[in-house]
Amino acid sequence: RPTPVAALEARHLVKEFRGFRATNDVSLQINEGEIHAIIGPNGAGKTTLFNLLSGFLRPTSGEVHLFGERVDQLRPYEIVRRGLSRSFQISSVFPTMTVRDNVLVALQSPTPLPHQFWSPLSRLDALGEQAEQILEAVGLGAAHERLAADLSHGEKRQLEIGISLTQQPRVLLLDEPTSGMGSEGIARVIALVREVARGRTVVLVEHNMSVVAELADRITVLQYGAVLASGRYDDVRQDPRVIEAYLGE
Ligand code: ADP
């Protein structure tokens, strides 16, 4: 078996906030093409780790590597250009614009995309076409002209994932994609994540363990800012330390 390629790697990451260690020597490897879930009790450091991986925070020490290149000193947009994109738990959607315009605005962000080489007129057509494809891919094919404000909570999350896809990420970070959803919305998100994970690496923070069980190839459990366990879902969930950490919450 060939050694898996690391899409994203944390090496001895530490993040301190005024002496408090929110991230405590985290090392982990996320392989190309896998769906990797990061779980752990509230305050375990999941959000801080996401911020470190996507360049929104600089580590106090340690390194982040994306496809073998060190990226922890780069700015978020420079990391986006190198293929990592992130959807936020806090909505990044413009409520007074239509669904389609939300995607069009994101498509025109400064990240270099192939369409920039086309002429202005065909460029607009191409952008429109790309927007359609993305909306189709996230299950909003019939919602183009609706105002983002009128979308359901679940549809907004779908749109946010669509917005992150405009950056053509090779690695997609999803922050609690099912939060606040009912079972129908959750089922839709599971299908959507499976879809977007084809040909991509997906890292998600997720509280719902049945979602993790359905989606994740491997998981990392954080506790007090450190890695408690990491590996295949079926192995990790039987780890006595993991069971104890969750029962003790
Ligand atoms: P999780 O996402 O797992 O709930 P967080 O990463 O949000 O955990 O937080 C981990 C710990 O770090 C918490 O104790 C939190 O209070 C602390 N923390 C996070 N961000 C900051 C900050 N900017 N300043 C001070 N403490 C912070």
Automatic annotation (TrEMBL):
Keyword set, alphabetical order: ATP-binding, Nucleotide-binding, Transport
Gene Ontology MF term list: ATP binding
Record InterPro entries: AAA+_ATPase (IPR003593), ABC_AA/LPS_Transport (IPR051120), ABC_transporter-like_ATP-bd (IPR003439), BCA_ABC_TP_C (IPR032823), P-loop_NTPase (IPR027417)
Chain ranges of the ABC transporter domain: 8-249
Pfam families found in the cross-reference section: ABC_tran (PF00005), BCA_ABC_TP_C (PF12399)
PROSITE patterns: ABC_TRANSPORTER_2
Protein's recorded name: ABC transporter ATP-binding protein
